[in-house]
Amino acid sequence: MPTPTAAPAETDVLIVGGGLGGVAAALAVCRAGRRAVLTEETDWIGGQLTAQAVPPDEHPWVEQFGVTATYRALREAIREHYRRWYPLRAEALDLPRLNPGAGRVSKLCHEPRVALAVLEAMLAPHRAAGRLTVLTEHRPVAAESDGDTVRAVTLADVRDGALHTVTAPYVIDATETGELLELAGVEHALGAESRAEYDEPHAPEAADPLNQQGITVCFAVSHHEGEDHTIDRPSGYDFWRTYRPDFWPGPLLGFLAPDPRTLAAVERTFVPNPDVDPLAVNADQSADAGDKELWGFRRILARGLHRPGAFDSDITLVNWPLNDYWLEPLVGAGEETSRQALAGARELSLSVLYWLQTEAPRPDGGTGFPGLRLRPDITGTADGLAKSAYVRESRRIKAVTTVTEHDVAIDLVGPYGGTRHRDSVGVGGYRIDLHPSTGGDNYIDIGSVPFEIPLGALVPRRVRNLLPAGKNIGTTHITNGCYRLHPVEWNVGEVAGALAAHCLAENVQPHEVQAEDKRFGEFARVLDREGVQRHWPDVRGY
Q: What pTM was computed for the model?
């Protein structure tokens, strides 16, 4: 993506972070006729879908309802990309609900580059019209605040260190870790709250800001029987080969791992390129999490969907129990610890690959799959690992409304329960899914109900012009587990962008829109016109 030689000195809305929430925010701002600057630390916009290489985690009703119109347009454009450009066999080409990877984690598993192409296309007309400036390879390094207002953000070009300061009446934090909250002095939470703070049954007794979900550095592989693509032995392999967490049923590098929902030890299977028609795969996490058969779990290209000979292997994305990293927190313990966490996560993922290539048990009784080939062409990197770590947990604003376990957990509200918000600005649905944490917790995976997203969760208690656009909204450590997924992040970002543009047009502040019924009604009509679903039909949680 080409980057302008100089960033604009001012704009209507500055969006820092080019993940799904940031892109959705930019689209909403520009659709309203306002100018926006969108920044991104890597050279790919798209965050979870692209730079982090994570196929979408979505609720089981996604094909019928429960997402915004623009998120649905994104999904359908991804399918259309495959129909137009890939050699799909006739039966696959005719599928209205094509799942390009036939993965089990999602009804729409696909390659990161395809999502990147579609997201770029969605932004293209606004860039051509001069409403949108996209600054890739830029990260925030400072923010200037005046009382309750964020005046400006300074960005550093990661290639040459050049600094650019951008002022804007509204600033949106769409970073993966809520970086602007720290830089701008916005009150926020981090890690696990104590049980006493919100009376959440699954919260720990004592608060621990450094107790955060593990991160994962994903990578893609194909398999070519008879070939040897074994990587060099990673320097940290001996440690990871013998590492056995206290709460794990065996070595981390192994196919025996806890079932997230029951914590029972379950043997995973791994058979590259299984001789099963991918058209027979039905991804439905409400019925089956799909994580027991690792090759098909996050498969992003299924060769069997295409004409014979077009591809000699599937491509699968490795984001498994084996390569979750939780030895150190990514956020809040200092830059050196953050660097160590990222380096450790990368070393773990390479060790997982080396173990798969050399020592993993094969169904035929042998060991190792040397034909596994790392795919840097899929991740857009030299080393074959994703450009960015998959970050599940961020700093979170101290919000006007904090979503707690009492709002969404099935055990507390019943399968048809859940808090109905007068200021709902969207919907989402997913189990409360927390991965093992840096505080030593095993999976916390409990049933939840389809939920509404309250506008109050996007409004900081004090600061007037900064809005969150991702995992940094007003959830807790526990409820982040169901609010952190792709369609919810998109919804939150779209609302943040629409709210900033609305406030500029009406000369009001976000707090007024949230608090006053008349003003909220006016904004809700904007969202309704844009196809933002704000309430669920009668569906059951799982």
A: 0.97
